[in-house]
Design goal:
The strands form two sheets. This protein has a seven-stranded mixed beta sheet with strand order 3-2-1-4-5-7-6, sandwiched between helices. Strands 8-9 form a two-stranded antiparallel ribbon. It has a domain of 161 residues: NAD(P)-binding Rossmann-like Domain (Rossmann fold, 3-Layer(aba) Sandwich). The two termini are 30 Å apart. The protein is α/β, with parallel strands linked by helices. Helix 3 links the parallel strand 1 and strand 2. It comes from Candidatus Aphodosoma intestinipullorum.
């Protein structure tokens, strides 16, 4: 009954496809948790959630599962509880580990995924995941930088080769080019220039050289755009679905 509005939108075949789909979501902080929740509410039947982080006070301004009552708890566990409350029948595989090369290879080689949602915020593991999924021909959508951005109307969905105005996207493209990948990976990005005053340098912990200020709504916009792309691709060629024809446009 709870999926009836989705059924009215897409039809029975699409609802069945979503229920049979398995999506890997890597990074369940500001962007990834919103993507995962939108997938669960759309009826995606199986999700693997990967993140080694705990909720901290600094997460509260933008992360779905971050509240004063959840500080210190594992993000994947909190999100799994929330998604199970939304869809008690969902099949969840929470993994509380920071992503690195060995884990990426194991994840991609030990399960079948219909889609990968990349919400990693550090460059090296992000590129390794994208390249690994690309080489295994697993459809992937990757979030670029939502930090330092304010205008949701400048968020776009496009091939990584067509991204512009995003420092993270530029760095990802450069690394992928070295690995022989020029296009074929979908990105959610913003063409809005980053406010330079919102960036501070860090000590390089977990490969992060800087932290960027983030407003509450921008990670949610990115996550919803990721879920939109996945849902439309999984239900392509069914009723009321445009097969992603609106991608590459401003949202």
């Amino acid at each position: 009954m709870w999926r009836e509005r989705t059924r009215l939108m897409f039809g029975n075949e699409a609802v069945e496809r979503l229920a049979a789909a398995h999506v890997l979501v890597v990074g369940v902080g500001g962007v990834g948790a919103y993507a995962a929740e939108m997938l669960a509410r759309a009826g995606v039947g199986e999700l693997t959630l990967v993140d080694g982080d705990m909720v901290s006070l600094s997460n509260i301004n933008r992360q779905l599962i971050a509240m004063h009552s959840t500080v210190g708890r594992r993000k994947v566990d909190l999100l799994a509880e929330r998604l199970t409350d939304i869809n008690p029948g969902i099949r969840l595989h929470p993994l509380c580990e920071y992503i690195h090369d060995d884990i990426t290879a194991r994840l991609l080689d030990t399960a079948h995924y219909d889609f990968v949602a990349d919400a990693i915020d550090t460059l090296s593991p992000k590129v390794y995941l994208l390249h690994s999924a690309y080489m295994r021909r697993i459809p992937t959508v990757s979030s670029m930088g939502s930090g330092g951005k304010l205008d949701p109307t400048q968020v776009r969905i496009a091939d990584i080769a067509a991204t512009e105005g995003c420092r993270l996207a530029r760095a990802v493209r450069k690394r992928l080019h070295r690995l022989g990948v020029v296009s074929g990976i979908t990105a959610v990005y913003s063409a809005e220039p980053v406010a330079s005053e919102s960036i501070i340098e860090t000590d390089g912990e977990r490969n992060k050289r800087s932290n960027t200020g983030t407003v509450s709504y921008m990670p949610a916009v990115f996550g919803c755009c990721m879920a939109s792309h996945i849902i439309r691709q999984l239900t392509s060629n069914t009723r009321n679905n445009d097969n992603g024809k609106r991608d590459n446009e401003m949202l």
